C-alpha cells in the first residue's frame, strides 16, 4: 500500500495533473471533452493533489459558490475529482475529500460540497461514503435537424451535433422531438445525479 500525502496544487504540477486527469477520463463516462489545461476558477477554490513518491496520483478541485441551492446555503462545487486507476481502493479519494472539507471549514466556514456525475461507478461511490442525492437530469447529444441546422447556419454557426441536458420529467418529450445520439459510447444519454456531502 502506497504512503501518499495530500498537498495544495501548484502551477508546476499542471502537466502531471493533466496526465492523471486524462487517465481518469479514459475510465469514466463523466467527461466527454478532453482538458488541455487545468481549469481556473472565478471564485476561491480548494485545489488539492494526492502524491505518492513525488508523483501525482489523485486530485480534487472545489470552487466556493454562495448560492448553489435554493436554501442559499453556502457550498463548494466539485469540478474535478479522481484517482489514477493504479491507486484506487486505497483510501486516497476519501482522504482528498476529507482534507478538502477540512480546508473549506477552516478557510471559508463552509461544510457542504455539491457533486454531479453521470458515471454509475462514481454515483455508487458517493452513496457508499454517505452522500445524499439531491438531483438528477439527463445529459445527451442530438443530431441537428435540417431546420435547426439551417437556422443556426443563417447565424454563422455550422453544427452537426448539439450537447445538452433536460429534467427527467422532460426526457420523453425531448426524445420525441429530437434525434438523440444513442450508439456513440461517449455521447450517448446518461442519467446525471447530483449529491451533497456535509461534513
Q: Gyration radius, to the nearest Å?
A: 19 Å
In the CATH scheme, what's the topology name of the largest domain?
A: Aminopeptidase
How much β-strand is present in the residues?
Answer: 25-35%
The backbone outline, from C-alpha atoms, is globular
Q: Please tell me the CATH architecture of the largest domain by its name.
A: 3-Layer(aba) Sandwich
Listing every helix as H and every strand as E from the N terminus to the C terminus, the arrangement reads EHEEEHEHEHEHEE
CATH superfamily of the largest domain: Gcn5-related N-acetyltransferase (GNAT)
Find the structural class using helix and strand composition: alpha+beta
Number of strands: 9
Q: In total, how many domains does the architecture comprise? A: 2
Largest sheet at a glance? Answer: 9 strands, mixed
- Unreliable stretches (pLDDT < 50, length at least 5) are none
